[in-house]
Write a structure and sequence with these properties.
Low-confidence stretches: none
Structural class: alpha/beta
Shape: elongated
Number of strands: 6
Bound molecules: zinc ion
CATH superfamily of the largest domain: Peptidoglycan recognition protein-like
CATH class of the largest domain: Alpha Beta
Mean pLDDT: 87
Length: 254
Amino acid sequence: MTLCPFATHRLLPESTTQPHITPRIAILHSAAGRGSLYGWFKDNSSLESHFWVSDEGLIEQYMDTNRRADANRNANAYAVSIETESSPQATERWTPAQAAAITRLLDWLCREHPDIERQQCDRPDGSGIGWHTMWGSPSPWTPVAKSCPGPARIPQARDEIIPAVIAAGSPSEPKEWSDMATEAEVKAAVKAGVKEALAEEAKNKTKGSLGYMLRGISRAVLDPVEPKEGSKPNAFQQLREQGRQIKSAIGNKG
Ligand SMILES: [Zn+2]
């Protein structure tokens, strides 16, 4: 029995009766609806997925990942399926909290089941991470025409989530501030930090001070204004001035 330690376990009866599998693909879906899928899978459907991720980033596990779940047509014998909460139309992106939970879950899956390679799935019967309609629809992964997981989530999976899972498996440590070579890298890091903090603030429904402060910091770093004539430069302006001096010193050395 393979259970994800940071998921809420709500195992379906099928979790002990379906055939054993050794997963080598993980497939992302959108549920086209709100709320846990546990009751739906248990009472209304002969299909099921291994996981469901809420828009707040909560993960429910319905099936042992070494048991077959029926959500992916021909890939059921070797795929782990991950359903995700969405609007009925599923046209929106995964929320930041949801994307983080999906990335963490995929990272765990790749470590727990090393046959799932850290790559975008290479073939319908290959290995890696994919999304339901990545081979079209109908296709080996779906008998019907559909757009799952949706027009915004497909590029988000391909360009953000899968690269993040690949990066999480690489041995190199994240860069320290002092090793960041370019202004663009520093900006990107600050932007990501501010975005994350603001998302956290929105999630906790707190208002005001933190967001105000962070926006101020991001403005100062991303778009610092020159100090007024005769006034003392603030910390960011000093930092930038130091950067300019270092740059010109290096430049002068030729
Ligand atoms: Zn789907």
